């Protein structure tokens, strides 16, 4: 995902030839400003008590410390790959509502007010409603999910999310027989999101899934990362996580979920339809028009590694696309 001119690669450097890896790591990639990390720590201290862990949750929050721990027995959906350090996961982000640089979300995230926060659920449902975030979290036990995350730009992370299955929420509002898709809408408020003062995208940011994708057990609504309350730069206070799709599908700061009969519009497929499709499944066999998707750079590693079909979740989700031409429905 990029709005850079064609002579630049996804990380702002001169573009490589088509089908070449889009980037190589630089010293700057691995040395994050200490001030940003200090700000991150200060921000999370104020929000930790807002997490709820109802009875039946995988763990209970011990005060202000982690509830996710390295060595925690993996769940049925967890990868056992090394987790991306929290510092990297919270200072190297795409969140264009804050700005177009990787450091902008952490630098400017303090402008976002994450409480109070409500979510409207409507459209083709029998029980449309508006619910505040605290009530929403109280409806479902929170679960830890350690997922791979692959950006369309060619870099990746491993993220321990904390959240609840989207399917649980959709079942609660009872989709009608006409519901086929789910559209997600992010907060639109240029006073809190300085990037929205730019007209480079059509705000608010919107995304969508087919209903069967939304109901898949891997699809998560996240409220935390590494056992901490989600920070603004990671999509606070509520974001979608779809681990077999490129990262831009996992919309952040969600305020509305609408079930629809027709395929909904999505921000990047409207901005650049030849580059970003509705499905956006991770696929090393289908290149981006300006760079190869065959390999990826895991943040914190020097070399590149092969990208896996459906980001390594093919066994769980490939059947959803049986019979589809994935070069056409990219």
Give an overview in words:
This protein has helices spanning 27-30, 34-47, 86-89, 104-108, 133-139, 166-173, 211-214, 267-271, 314-317, and strands spanning 118-123, 129-132, 143-150, 155-165, 181-186, 206-210, 220-225, 228-229, 239-241, 254-260, 295-298, 305-306. It is an alpha+beta fold and 330 residues long. The strands form 2 sheets. Strands 3, 4, 7, 8, 9, 11 and 12 form a 7-stranded mixed beta sheet that branches. It has a 5-stranded mixed beta sheet with strand order 2-1-10-5-6.
Keyphrases for this structure?
330 residues; alpha+beta; seven-stranded mixed β-sheet; five-stranded mixed β-sheet; 9 helices; 12 strands; 19% strand; disordered N terminus
In short:
The protein has nine helices and twelve strands. The chain is of the alpha+beta class. The two termini are 14 Å apart.
Beta-strand content bin: 15-25%
Q: What is the H-and-E element order?
A: HHHHEEHEEHEEHEEEEHEEH
Q: Over the alpha carbons, how many angstroms does the gyration radius reach?
A: 19 Å
Amino- and carboxy-terminal Cα gap: 14 Å
What is the number of E strands?
A: 12
Approximately how much helix is present in the residues? 10-25%
In DSSP terms (H or I, runs of 4 or more residues), the helix count works out at: 9
What structural class do you assign from the helix and strand content?
alpha+beta
Q: What's the story with the biggest beta sheet?
A: 7 strands, mixed
Q: On the 0-100 scale, what is the average pLDDT?
A: 84
């Amino acid at each position: 995902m990029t709005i850079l001119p064609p002579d630049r690669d996804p990380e702002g450097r001169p573009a490589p030839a088509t089908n070449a890896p889009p980037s190589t790591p630089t010293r700057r990639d691995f040395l994050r400003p200490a001030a940003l990390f200090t700000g991150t720590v200060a921000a999370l201290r104020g929000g930790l008590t807002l997490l709820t862990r109802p009875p039946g949750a995988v763990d209970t929050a011990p005060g202000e410390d982690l509830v996710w721990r390295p060595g925690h027995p993996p769940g049925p959906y967890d990868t056992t790959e090394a987790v991306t350090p929290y510092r990297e996961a919270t200072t190297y982000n795409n969140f264009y509502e804050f700005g177009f640089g990787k450091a902008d979300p952490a630098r400017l995230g303090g402008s976002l007010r994450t409480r109070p926060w409500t979510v409207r659920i409507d459209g083709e449902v029998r029980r449309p409603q508006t619910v505040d975030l605290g009530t929403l979290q109280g409806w479902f036990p929170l679960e830890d999910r350690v997922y791979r995350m692959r950006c369309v730009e060619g870099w990746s992370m491993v993220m321990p999310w904390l959240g609840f299955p989207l399917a649980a929420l959709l079942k609660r509002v009872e989709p009608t027989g006409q519901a086929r898709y789910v559209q997600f809408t992010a907060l639109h408020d240029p006073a809190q999101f300085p990037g929205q003062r730019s007209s480079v995208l059509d705000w608010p940011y919107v995304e969508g899934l087919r209903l069967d994708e939304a109901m898949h057990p891997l699809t998560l609504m996240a409220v935390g990362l590494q056992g901490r309350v989600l920070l603004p730069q990671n999509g606070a206070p509520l974001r979608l996580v779809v681990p077999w799709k490129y990262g831009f599908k996992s919309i952040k700061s969600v305020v509305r979920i609408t079930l629809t009969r027709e395929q909904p519009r999505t921000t990047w497929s409207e901005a650049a339809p030849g580059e970003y499709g509705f499905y956006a499944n991770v696929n090393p066999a289908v290149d981006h028009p300006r760079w190869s998707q065959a390999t990826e750079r895991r943040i914190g590693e020097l070399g590149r590694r092969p990208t896996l079909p459906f980001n390594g979740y093919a066994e769980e989700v490939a059947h959803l696309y049986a019979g589809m031409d994935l070069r056409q429905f990219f």
